Amino acid sequence: MHSFIPPERFFPYLTWTEIQQMPGKENVVLLQPIGAIEQHGPHLPLVVDAAIATATVGGALARLEPNIPAYALPTLCYGKSNEHWHFPGTITLTAQTLMTTLMEVGESLYRAGFRKLALVNAHGGQPQVLEMAARDLHQQHEDFLVFPLFVWRAPNLDVGFLTPKEAEFGIHAGDAETSLMLAILPDQVQMERAVAEYPHGLPADSLLSMEGKLPFAWTTRDLSRSGVLGDPTVATKAKGDRILESLAASWARVIHDLHYFQQPQAWKDS
């Protein structure tokens, strides 16, 4: 059941007595991989985001220094995916359901004595929900450190091979995600069905953009007929291996920093 996660770092394999007796729980890092079950074009499976979140966390934990206590929770596979719901197979939670789920998971972990929770998300349709849940959990428990993180924002991410067009518009099932899936779950990728498609009808010479500083609301159907936003036809396993290695190394450093992080408390200094 641990999938890509090292079994000794998989939280559900612990017993309740091991958790009760665990020393220094306030600095143990708990990682919640979060993905989605949603369409990723005709060539990729629905599980892409959940697989990427799990593989990234697993690779990072495999590289983490043994003396840093950190565990992965079971991947939350369902997410807020209503931008894709016109495509069969997409399963979506509402923002309210996702937020309630994260709040209740957080409350359960806090009650057990843990004080550091990282939400490691790989789906671009829900960072704002995670940010709200993280702040609300911290507001309710001032000693609870909650981190709303996004897999693709890791430092030193190796995606220099992307063309400028792909880097800007290849946000879903394009070169990067397809290459990464060729490294993670190659048997589930159907490259013979891959098609390239970039967003249609974007405003020209406008301050408004798809995902910029001044975005407009959209569903995938507005922009793409295939469900793809990018060019997966140029994806390769070699690129995916590069991405995965850079993600794992970067996130191992992030977990290291999470372990040693202390919440700023300016109010105590006054």
What does this structure look like?
It is a single chain. The protein is of the alpha/beta class and about 270 residues long. The protein has one domain: Rossmann fold (3-Layer(aba) Sandwich), CATH 3.40.50. About 35% of the residues lie in helices and about 10% in strands. The chain is built from eight helices and four strands. The protein has helices spanning about 15-20, 50-65, 95-110, 125-140, 165-170, 175-185, 220-225, 235-260; strands at about 30-35, 70, 115-120, 145-150. A four-stranded parallel beta sheet has the order 2-1-3-4. Helix 2 (about 50-65) packs across helix 8. The radius of gyration is 19 Å and the shape is globular. The model has no long low-confidence stretch (mean pLDDT about 95).
What's the structural blueprint in terms of helices and strands?
Layout: H1 16-21, E1 29-34, H2 48-63, E2 70-72, H3 95-111, E3 116-121, H4 127-140, E4 145-150, H5 164-169, H6 175-184, H7 220-223, H8 237-260
Parallel strand pairs: 1-2, 1-3, 3-4
Helix pairs in contact: 2-6, 2-8, 3-4, 6-8
